Amino acid sequence: MKRRTLLGAAALPLGPLPLVPLARPALAQSWPSRPITLSVPFAAGGPTDVMARLLAQRLAVSLGQSVPVENLGGAGGIVGTEKLSRARPDGYTIGLGHMGTHAANPAFYKSLPYNPLTDFEPLCSVGTNPMIAAARPGLAKTVAELRDWVAKNPGQLTLANAGTGSVSFLGGLLFDRVISARSTMVPYRGAAPALQDTMNGVTDAIVDQAVTVIPQARGGTIQALAVAMPQRLPQLPDVPTAAEAGIPDFSIAVWNGAYAPKGTPEPILAKLAEAFSAALDDEALSKQFTEYAVLIPPRAERGREPLRRLMQAEVPRWEKLARDAGVEKQ
Ligand code: MLT
After folding, report:
1. Least buried of 38, 155, 205, 301, by fewest C-beta within 10 Å?
2. Average pLDDT of span 271-284
3. Which residues in 255-285 are b (16+ Cβ under 10 Å) and which e?
4. Which one of 38, 39, 40, 42 would you pick to mutate in the ligand 1 pocket, going by the greatest count of ligand atoms within 8 A of its CB?
5. CA distance 42 to 24
6. Closest residue by Cα to residue 95 from 45, 51, 161, 34
7. What does the alpha-carbon distance between residue 51 and residue 96 come to, in Å, rounded to a whole number?
């Protein structure tokens, strides 16, 4: 059989192609035999990156190979997510994505260069994180003070974000609406540089995930204004909920997920999914995620099929939300 395939291959102009079906099971069996790249479609130091690096340490232990994190930010996560969709589906390139890259983006772009539902293999939901509205130091200590500032400076508020369709963009749109600010959205390659510029006073405010706001708000380098969820966070007990701050409709939390490119062999997908799930069961990681207010889904809700179902529900939900809000696709 092997001989016939090889002889047949010799007669074809594309030579080695018929070897692929023979090579695949062997590849799956020996996987992983070299480092596995975990791609992050945003700049280093942002929420996706922080979660990726914590996960990568545990994945490396359970898979027996190093798991370097590769950051490729730009265009609200599209640049890096497209690259992941085109990566060789051999289990050596996987990536993190979230509610923006894998659900909301189709609602904001006319021709997104990937399809979140068909170009990826969902691996594992890795956690949900609330968003927090925060202002540059000295601008406002509360939402009420920010509203006063907006009233005195109509149309002047700048909101830093990680680009159209990113979650800091989605959170920013919602916040802008609930405080009626008509803000200018200022895009960056990730939430880390966006947050940094807000801390430095280059931009006025940001809506970012708790992962990265908590340490800065504690350190006093940013003024947290409201948590976009019904309960206060024990990590920031003095920061009011959205309802307490007078903006009850400011409610947004971000789900994050791990993906492989479509076509990755089934046995590798199963091993990767289990490795992510095991990482989330790790006591030290779960402690670190809890410090950042990342809620880890129970095992039954974090696997490949639950993440696929979540995306199948979320893509049309964001299409509808954007349509109802009159958002014009770019
Ligand atoms: C986003 O705003 O979509 C992400 O949180 C950006 C990031 O992880 O840097």
Report:
1. 155
2. 97
3. bbbbbbbeebbeebbebbbebbbbbbebeeb
4. 42
5. 31
6. 51
7. 9
Could you confirm whether domain 35-128+255-324 is CATH 3.20.20.140? no
Distances (CA, A) of 143 to 17, 159, 220: 61, 14, 17
pTM metric for this prediction: 0.90
Does pLDDT of 302 surpass 60?
A: yes
Q: Residue 168 in contact with residue 128, Cβ under 8 Å?
A: no
Tell me: pLDDT of 269 over 80.
yes
CATH code of the region 130-227: 3.40.190.10
Q: What is the pLDDT of residue 223?
A: 98
Q: Which of 96, 128, 166, 196 to mutate to test the pocket of ligand 1 (most atoms within 8 A of CB)?
A: 166
Pocket of ligand 1 (CB under 6 A): 42-43, 46-48, 77, 100, 162, 166-168, 190-192, 209
The minimum-distance atom of ligand 1 relative to the CA of 46 is 9
Rounded to the nearest whole angstrom, what is the distance from the C-alpha of residue 170 to the centroid of ligand 1?
10
Kindly state the tokens that stand for 278.
């095991």
Instruction: Quote the ligand 1 centre to 161 CA distance (angstroms).
Output: 8
Same fold: 35-128+255-324 with 130-227: yes
Cβ atoms of 59 and 279 within 8 Å: the answer is: yes
Q: Give residue limits of the domains in the chain.
A: 35-128+255-324, 130-227
Position in ligand 1 atom list of the atom nearest CA 43: 9
Confidence bin at 54 (pLDDT 50/70/90): very high
If phi > 0 it is left, if psi is from -120 to 50 it is alpha, else beta; for residue 310 that is alpha
* The pLDDT of residue 5: 33
